[in-house]
Specification:
CATH topology of the largest domain: Serine Threonine Protein Phosphatase 5, Tetratricopeptide repeat
CATH superfamily of the largest domain: Tetratricopeptide repeat domain
Shape: globular
Order of helices and strands: HHHHHHHHHHHHHHHHHHHHHHH
Number of strands: 0
CATH class of the largest domain: Mainly Alpha
Strand content: under 5%
CATH architecture of the largest domain: Alpha Horseshoe
């Protein structure tokens, strides 16, 4: 599977879910039709004018609380979480997502709890917490499937969309078949609900799954149908239609058509001011121009991508830290609740022991149960502490993983970022020889990362012969021509 498809899967149909979520069926009979209508109008313009939409959403949420429609008000918090997720405000995504979950648990609204849990899982996947994202996403699916009434079928549909996006973002190749099954199941739910918007969005996601599973003709067929039926409906819908068309035609080896649709999608992403979507289209266009034998255009596109990528890198790091902090806080809250429960049990047990002092046998049984409970609590605490340690370790490894990814993608930022992380390495190299070129330094850096000659050639899009010659020249410049020591070993130990 070509790299452009892997990048595209990170995009997914997340922004469009704002529109879909607005159609969740009313659970309370007290909700006025006017509130429902106003909410749907607000949702239709969430992305175009998020600030104004949020203000209006706050107003109708207040009105819903006045008429005691708690379910409607609870849904508003989940919609806010999804909107903040789409515009990249991850701290507020978690704040409103957790608020929606807390209220949903309190009022036993499992449909809203499932959707809010799915939104938080998407954020985890977006910042690289893959294991936690898949686990949390599966929890959301189970919550949605806990009830099969009409409102929960609607929640099942939305959560399945989230879960499909999570699987594709975490590891599109590994989860390709599972994501396809989820998307096909979701299409059936949409058809059962007879919701045209749901059917359209399910088909958009199905195109991605067909591409990842190599079913390009099926993907083209659906894409043509969607373009015929929905093109021109809105800028946002058109952007996703062009994204799917670009992916499909690229995989079908029709690079001219791919470039045409990807450029149209990029224009709309710029118009809607959606930086992550702009990055996605630019990355796909770069690959398409390479396939079309247009290296100059590919280089220009790559430069534009790098500029946006640098701006987004800081946001992503902040988002990762916020997400990890949220997981840690959840664990701490869980431990706090367990400690509180343990204290209550201990207090109750003490009262019972005093009251039933003469009944030795009953006292003995209760004491034994208490001991087992303590051991179970300690085991849970230990497991949670180990999990927190793993998450902290993941943060420390983030910089190295980022450098390796830049090397694999042959990203121009690679050498600059490598110098920032390993400044002493380049000082030592320059001390040994001042004749090393940029390409020499790049090769040395990749050898320092234990990349093989074959891997370096593959990632830099050159021949193995070229890399061997470069290594020979580097040995001469470093005065190692008479040494039996391997160049890679020498650089690794430098």
């Amino acid at each position: 599977m070509v790299s452009v498809i892997k990048i595209s899967f990170r995009l997914q149909l997340v922004v469009l879910l704002c529109f879909l979520f607005g159609n969740i069926l009313t659970q309370s009979n007290d909700t006025s039709q006017l509130l429902e209508k106003e909410r749907n109008e607000i949702i239709a313009h969430l992305i175009e004018n998020p600030k104004e939409s949020l203000m209006k959403l706050e107003r109708i949420q207040t009105r819903a609380l006045k008429i005691k429609d708690v379910h409607f008000a609870n849904r508003c918090d989940a919609i806010k979480a999804l909107l903040y997720y789409n515009i990249g405000n991850y701290q507020k995504t978690l704040a409103y997502g957790n608020k929606a979950i807390k209220e949903a648990k309190k009022n036993k609204f499992t449909d809203i709890q499932a959707i809010a849990t799915g939104i938080i899982a998407m954020q985890y996947s977006k910042v690289g917490l893959k294991e936690e994202a898949v686990k949390t996403g599966m929890e959301a699916v189970k919550l949605a499937e806990s009830n099969n009434d009409l409102s929960h079928m609607d929640a099942q549909y939305n959560v399945n969309l989230y879960y499909s996006a999570i699987l594709n973002r975490c590891d599109a190749k590994k989860y390709a078949l599972e994501a396809l099954n989820v998307d096909e199941k979701n299409l059936q739910i949409a058809q059962k609900l007879q919701n045209k918007k749901y059917i359209r969005s399910a088909l958009l996601n199905l195109i991605l799954s067909y591409n990842e599973n190599g079913k390009y003709e099926e993907a083209k067929k659906i894409n043509k149908q969607l373009l015929r039926d929905y093109e021109g409906e809105s800028d946002l819908i058109d952007m996703y239609l062009y994204d799917r068309a670009g992916i499909t035609y690229f995989n079908a080896k029709q690079s001219d058509s791919a470039i045409y649709y990807l450029n149209k999608g990029l224009s709309l992403a710029k118009k809607l001011d959606m930086p992550e979507d702009k990055m996605n289209f630019l990355e796909q266009l770069k690959e398409a121009y390479k396939e079309n034998k247009n290296p100059e255009k590919a280089k220009s596109i790559s430069s534009e991508y790098d500029n946006i990528s640098m701006q987004q890198a800081s946001n992503k790091t902040d988002a990762l830290q916020i997400s990890v902090k949220n997981i840690v806080n959840e664990n701490q809250e869980s431990e706090k609740n367990k400690t509180s429960l343990f204290k209550k049990i201990t207090f109750g047990s003490s009262i019972i022991v005093i009251f039933l002092l003469c009944l030795y046998y009953i006292y003995y049984i209760r004491f034994r149960k208490q001991k087992l409970s303590v051991e179970a609590q300690q085991k849970i605490i230990k497991e949670k502490q180990e999990k927190i340690s793993q998450l902290k370790s993941q943060l420390e490894d983030n910089a190295l993983n980022e450098i390796i990814q830049y090397a694999v993608e042959d990203n121009p930022i690679f050498l600059k970022r490598y110098k920032e992380v390993y400044p002493d390495f380049f000082k030592k190299l320059n001390a040994l020889s001042a004749e090393l070129t940029i390409d020499d330094l790049k090769c040395c850096a990749m050898l320092h990362l234990n990349f093989s000659t074959k891997e370096i050639a593959s990632y830099t899009h050159t021949s193995i012969r070229t890399i061997e010659n470069r290594k020979f020249r580097i040995r001469k410049k470093l005065h190692l021509e008479n040494s039996q020591k391997d160049l890679g070993e020498f650089l690794t130990n430098l």
